[in-house]
Amino acid sequence: MQTLRTPDERFAEIPNFPYVPHYCELDDGDGGRIRVAWIEDGPADADPILLLHGEPSWSFLYRKMIPVLVAAGYRVVCPDLVGFGRSDKPTRREDHTYARHVEWMRACVFDVLDLRRVTLFGQDWGGLIGLRLAAENPDRISRIVVANTGLPTGDFAMPEVWWRFREAIQTSPRIDVGRFVESGCLRPMDDEVREAYNAPFPDDSFCAGPRAMPGLVPTTPDDPASDANRSAWAALTASSAPMLVAFSDGDPITGAMAPIFQQMRGAQGIDHPTIHGAGHFLQEDAGEELAGYIVRFLPPGAG
């Protein structure tokens, strides 16, 4: 598998993001090795909160949430998906598969970091991957937070706005990732923040990941990932792991999933917040508020 690695100097001027990256090398699924990056903060012996980002962002998306969670006493771990952030970037769209992304994150957070008693937070593809991790590794996951995400099986139609996004990011001659993230927010974005989202992608040769990911979402019942996702739904439905559903009020892509998650066994008896005035990327629009709800969801002293 041929990969690219974003030069370190691209990350030299990232605003309000002082975290030192950590790296591991994993099997790439094609006979080689691939480097995955993550950042972390907080006490090393505290219960971990795993923050998984989605398409086309990276761990920078969590800069407003990390300080709040660390101040509450937790260890926060935030990987960059393969193809994003400081992680290596396969150059061919075909190198990206749903199964590989699940395995890359599983190997990073369980084999390398050996995380246990995890509170999993997933948004966008962070949920598509993270919910699979939760369903397939229940002994590692204590609690789940879902925010503007889903777990598609292809049995139900995706919204039209998602199809328009998929078409745009797959066919645009050049991807301006910062503009795509900004289009998924409701609150103003500064130029330096927009450029921070662009930092991992010096040119379009680095963008196979962002271009590939929408095509990996199951949209037909016979998609290669559909059966695994159906099994994950069954496991999550039966799970008693507490689940917080924290969606925004301004996401036309995933908004319909909130009441479905709220019916899950683990979601019963929990006060599920709605983040008002926030778009698809609610971490960017209202990160501090969202982190506050997560802290209130966690039991006292777990950190």
From TrEMBL:
Keywords: Hydrolase. GO terms for molecular function: epoxide hydrolase activity. Residues 48-167 form the AB hydrolase-1 domain. Pfam families: Abhydrolase_1 (PF00561). PANTHER family: AB HYDROLASE-1 DOMAIN-CONTAINING PROTEIN (PTHR42977:SF3), HYDROLASE-RELATED (PTHR42977). This is Haloalkane dehalogenase.
